[in-house]
Design goal:
Layout lengths: L2 E9 L2 E8 L2 E4 L10 E4 L3 E5 L1 E6 L15 H13 L4 H17 L2 E8 L2 H11 L2 E8 L5 H13 L8 E7 L7 H14 L2 E6 L3 H11 L3 H7 L7 E5 L5 H10 L2 E4 L1 H6 L7 H7 L2 E4 L12 H14 L8 H8 L1 H6 L15 E5 L11 H8 L5 E6 L2 E4 L7 H16 L1
Parallel strand pairs: 1-4, 6-7, 7-8, 8-9, 9-10, 10-11, 11-12, 12-13
Antiparallel strand pairs: 1-2, 2-3, 5-14, 14-15, 15-16
Helix pairs in contact: 2-3, 2-15, 11-12, 12-14
Bound molecules: zinc ion (ZN).
């Protein structure tokens, strides 16, 4: 059993001592002299839940700034996919470590990924101490041999850190995965007990093409194929009508809203107010760093809230709700008792330095955190009861950056 005592820490407006035991919050009102293996004096710091990023492509950090300012299909076909074809396992590992470093520094302790060579990203996550659901990407163009091998990998692979790292099945989208592959993915996810994550109705063109090819919109098409269920995380969902929202709510689908990516690629405006009223579990994702271009969930919350307001009214998506989308709702989608600072919840959290100028004055910490701060305010990050960033330091930072630069020199050179 390992224990950690956080002394003199601000929690929900009051100063307390928090005892963490075996990765869980054990006591939120511990005695100042409670016995613990290690003690951290958090005077002048506040604790808030860490972020759960429900849609990203981690190793795309290597493509940050590589191709900007174009629409989705040109961006994918002419720039992203040709670059990715050159990436080796080492590159995926290096890019994933860069991503995890950035996530830790910006307060994220969980991400749902969709990318290639997931065993490499798994290694990065296992070593660096955070959590992930790693989506193995499937598309028809991979060919039957590769698809069958990936499905076997999904069925048999298990992380040595299974409490933190799991696989998910990630058919890319309805325009890259035909009905047979989508049905196989849904079946595999059910029999392996895994989550299924997919891009859904990201652009108007995707919806129009689907109606032309399948006679119905992507949400209806996925429902017809039996894909939708409580294990599904649907990314984007920009062009979803009220009837489709009802279908998604009824099936228990989680939505991953990606405001920065949707704005940068001019994909469209997520119908936040209608979705919030639909009963769907709504979460936030950053998408990859070549359509964002960072993995900063705090920034993403602010964009989500501002976009919701400008497309509806100023009362839409208040700070507290945006914060919940980025934390507790994301944890819930992955069956994790986390995203809250409560007894028995997973001890995943961010420590904020209250002397930071953007947290001053501190009328309302959540308001400051969503609207005012940036990640410089983060002094520490805990995952599974362990510091993954301690007093501003993440282990091996210099080496991680050097390795990422090495990969990029080869790939882009
Ligand atoms: Zn994406």
């Amino acid at each position: 059993m390992t224990t950690l005592l956080l002394k003199n820490i601000l929690l929900d407006g009051r100063t307390t001592n928090i005892l963490i035991k075996d990765g869980l919050f054990a006591d939120l009102n511990a005695a100042a002299d409670a016995a613990a293996d290690s003690i951290y004096d958090a005077s002048g710091e506040a604790i808030v839940p860490s972020f759960f990023n429900t849609h990203t492509h981690a190793a795309m950090t290597l493509l940050r700034g590589y191709a900007d300012d174009m629409e989705l299909f040109t961006w994918l076909n002419d720039h992203i996919w040709p670059f990715e074809a050159k990436m080796t396992a080492q590159d995926i590992y290096n890019g994933s470590r860069l991503a995890v470093l950035e996530m830790i520094r910006s307060g994220t302790t969980f991400f749902c990924d969709m990318y290639w060579m997931m065993e490499e990203t798994a290694k990065a996550v296992e070593e660096m101490g955070i959590r992930a659901a790693l989506g193995v990407t499937l598309m028809d163009r991979l060919g039957e041999e590769k698809i069958a091998a990936d499905l076997r990998f999904l069925e048999s692979w298990k992380s040595p850190c299974a409490n933190r790292v799991e696989l998910a099945i990630a058919p890319h989208a309805v325009y890259t995965a035909g009905p047979e592959l989508l049905e196989r993915c849904a079946q595999a996810a059910r029999s392996n007990g895994q989550r299924l994550t997919i891009h859904v109705s990201e652009t108007r063109q995707e919806v129009e093409d689907c109606i032309r090819a399948r006679g119905m919109s992507p949400v209806r098409w996925l429902d017809k194929l039996g894909v939708l269920g409580p294990n599904v995380i649907a990314a984007h969902c920009v062009y979803v009508d009220p009837e489709e929202m009802d279908i998604m709510a009824e099936r228990g689908v989680t939505v991953a809203h990606n405001p920065c990516s949707n704005m940068k690629l001019a994909s469209g405006i997520f119908p936040a107010a209608k979705f919030a009223a639909s009963g769907c579990n709504i979460t936030i994702g950053t998408d990859g760093t070549s359509s964002n271009n960072n993995l900063d969930m705090r920034e993403e919350m602010k964009f989500a809230s501002l976009l919701a307001k400008v497309s509806n009214n100023s009362e839409t998506l208040p700070a507290q709700e945006a914060f919940k989308w980025a934390t507790a709702n994301g944890a819930k989608a992955f069956g994790l008792n986390a995203g809250v600072i409560e007894k028995s919840a997973l001890a995943d959290a961010v420590l904020l330095d209250l002397s930071n100028e953007r947290l001053t004055p501190n009328y309302n910490l959540v308001s400051n955190w969503v609207y005012a701060a940036d990640s410089r305010a983060i002094s520490g990050v805990l995952c599974d009861g362990r510091f993954v960033m301690h007093k501003g330091i993440v282990e091996n930072e210099e080496e991680i950056l050097a390795k990422a630069r090495e990969s990029v020199a080869r790939l882009a050179g």
